[in-house]
Amino acid sequence: MPPSIPASCYDLLPASLASELQTNWQRYQDQADSDQFEQLQELPEAFWQQLSRCWSGSLFVVEQCLNRPELLPDLLPDLERSYDEGEYARRLEQILASAETENELHRCLRQFRHREMSRIIWRDLNRLAEMEQTTADLSALADACIDQALNWLYRWACDKWGTPHSRAREGQPAQPQQMVVIGMGKLGAGELNLSSDIDLIFAFPEMGETEGARRCLDNASFFNKLGQKLIQALDQQTADGFVFRVDMRLRPYGQSGILVPNFAAMEEYYQDQGRDWERYAMIKARVVAGDQQAGAQLMADLRPFVYRKYLDYSAFESLREMKAMINREVRRKQLHGNVKLGPGGIREVEFVAQAFQLIRGGRDSRLQQRELKTILSLLPDAVGMPEQAADELYQAYRMLRNAEHAIQAVQDRQTQELPTEELEQIRIAFSMGFERWEDFIAELEQQRAKVRHHFAEVIAPVDDSDDDESNDDSWALLWKGELDETSAVAEFSAQGFEQPEQAQKLLDNLRSNRKVLALQSIGRERLDRVMPLLLQAVAGQPQPTQTLERTLQLIDSVLRRSAYLVLLWENPGALAQLVKLCSASPWFAEQLAKQPILLDELIDVTSLYAPPNKEQLQQELRQQLLRIPEEDVEQLMEALRYFKHAHVLRVAAAEISGALPLMKVSDYLTYIAEVVLEGALDIAWRILTDKHGLPQQSAGVPCERDFIVVGYGKVGGLELSYGSDLDLVFIHDGALNQHTDGNKPIDNQVFFTRLGQKIIHILNTFTTSGQLYEVDMRLRPSGNSGMLVSSLKAFRDYQLSEAWTWEHQALVRARVVAGSPTLQQRFEAVRAEVLSRQRELPKLRTEVIDMRRKMREHLGSSQSDDTDSAVFHLKQDSGGIVDIEFMVQYLALAYSEQQPALIEYTDNIRILEAAERLERLSVEDAELLREAYKTYRSVGHSRALQEQSSLVDDQQLGELRAKVAGIWKQLMDA
């Protein structure tokens, strides 16, 4: 007769978990046979208590036992003991010795993993292993799976393609090569959690080729194939599940980098292009599989990148910025219950330790270690941290990690979120040793509060500015409606509001708003705390009533997301910036009301008014995309949109404040577009190549992403403004008679066409965060009737034999904004060839004038040719922006055959400078056109921020307009 769980075991459990255990045990009895039960017959009550705790805490272990009833008796010898060093690897090596095919390898790996994970969870939930032993076991299990799978696959690959060797040198024969696998993050530190990804980087020592097989490969190809096979062996979901989810995005160049670089390429990358966040990541790097000796040398060579010889206090700022990024994500995704990323979570403890490692690790080699416990214990002596602080941080860390394990043990899912369902809360509290969920949460919050305190002391010092006077009683009375209408209007008037009755009405409307009336107590409390501060800040603006109306748009939009009210309350600087910028620009207020998530950008005034350069923009976007699974296209698209909207907001803030002149504003907006286009191209390329493989240049020779995005118009001329669309042309240089090399091959032309379509989809699609850019493809050869993506040859042929003069005018402002640098050079040669052709000047002049006349007639104001008119369309009317652009294009087309400097650049200002230098314009005329162009664009930017049209009624521009029209007449009507 099968054994039963003793009644005393059920008494240990909450009622809901006891009932669940009884059901699961009955299911097990139905599945198991007598031989399996026989081994359980005489086991002591301690075993049944352990089973009750484990099965109550982990439905994953329950399912493993139900799927394989023999698992439970098989685990018995190993539940009470710790494994010896190397035991995981020895056990797995023995199991894999019988695997003859990849499918058998996959099955053996997964069954081994599930057995050992069940053992580890059992020991963890029963506290037979402390947290440190659990994380060490998980890391050792991962090491064994990676290393043994690599060894099996390496032998298989060598049999198929030969053994890779280095190139022979004088006096030194070729040496066999093996891959090196570097574990990053928690795996590298030996601190893996129960359901963690494993972050890996692959590398191999030297270039060379394989030997000993009929079909030889170069080493790069061999190890790339081997790396792909290893990822499949570990990550691929089969009927038996998976081993570990593998994340390769920390490798050089991220998802766009080659899978397995050689050592020299690794060193060059980190020396020349390594970023601060990569220094942070490399702290925990460890060779986990493959050639340990070669890997140790590589890690030694990379050490100077991680640990600087000087005291590097910039690490504080870098980590502060990283934490700010995480905080924004926490708010955006409502992750406050996340024990890893939320306030006072695991990540904050890690940041404290790693800040001092980055700052002092170059000088103090003791800090060049991976394990967090070791680092925290060193900090009192190494940097003077109080011992109590170090102890409190580590004790909090232990509880947070145990909570993380309890959460992940339930279903073997990668989550750190505290549950919201009652049964799951009971389960977690029980696994953590608490009778009630409320008791567990109280203790957890106490520990998180300690982490928040120490983190603020080290990484983000608390703002200690005195704000005792910030909450003036009069503003609170106004907001709460405790003054009668006459008194309220009088108070607004006394505070300087230019329309006190309107201000009172605005406040009344908000108070009576349905959303306000429906607020729960916590939301109402937050609103009541913010509004007096907001009113006080508004009163200090030049037109407070107008400013109040604009800022209340935002308040209305966030009433159901009151976390944003907390942000404004806790960050007075952000509130001040919000009011100041909304006062200056209704456009700014409207953007924030539409996307209040962008409020985060107001917190750091330094970044708000000091825009990054293009390289910094690329780095920032890359970091954001790295945190998103490559297959999650929707999230990648959302990340692109947030990045774009946030930086456009920063541009506007800098322009409004006067911190950024017009030319820099356009540069910044253009850089944003270029970086977004690069990101969209990367995403689209990966999607297409994952499905169809790489396009081939010739049989067996893949294209090196021979694709470019050419920007025309404003983006081509580095003159983007707010709301500009993108005039784009796509060009490729792939072989037209070849196909892709994937499982679903397609013709190269079809591949590149789909690539263009995917890029447009990423840019054009409206999501919850809006649209990235509106894309206009009408400037491609033959316009809307032409191919979406042209080959470079077809583009050249069209431009030389079929294009109209206006298309050559457009080409003056065309430049490559994303894609292959090699193809960019070839495109630039074609552009120069087309633009510098000899032309008949009378004919050219006539065609340019005719096109300009048509544009004025269709797009200008009704008085477009009247320079004395009080109404002036900045762009299209006579003497406006397009007149200047057409004169520039005419000069470029007319004289670049003899003076190629006229087409060296694509922006109007530098072409005008070249025309002056080459004496195609007088100094006076060139200077006037430059100043007029900048003035018009400055007025246009200003009017855009004020949500006004390009039609102006300003006599101040009349004289300038007349002078530009005079230069047009002199140059074009000659």
UniProtKB/TrEMBL annotation:
Adenylyl removase: region residues: 1-462
Cofactor annotation: Mg(2+)
Organism lineage string: Bacteria, Pseudomonadati, Pseudomonadota, Gammaproteobacteria, Oceanospirillales
EC code(s) of this entry: 2.7.7.89, 2.7.7.42
InterPro entries tied to this protein: GlnE (IPR023057), GlnE_rpt_dom (IPR005190), NT_sf (IPR043519), PII_UdlTrfase/GS_AdlTrfase (IPR013546)
Protein origin, superkingdom: Bacteria
GO terms, biological process: regulation of glutamine family amino acid metabolic process
Keywords: ATP-binding, Ligase, Magnesium, Multifunctional enzyme, Nucleotide-binding, Nucleotidyltransferase, Transferase
Record function comment: Involved in the regulation of glutamine synthetase GlnA, a key enzyme in the process to assimilate ammonia. When cellular nitrogen levels are high, the C-terminal adenylyl transferase (AT) inactivates GlnA by covalent transfer of an adenylyl group from ATP to specific tyrosine residue of GlnA, thus reducing its activity. Conversely, when nitrogen levels are low, the N-terminal adenylyl removase (AR) activates GlnA by removing the adenylyl group by phosphorolysis, increasing its activity.
Name of the molecule in the record: Bifunctional glutamine synthetase adenylyltransferase/adenylyl-removing enzyme
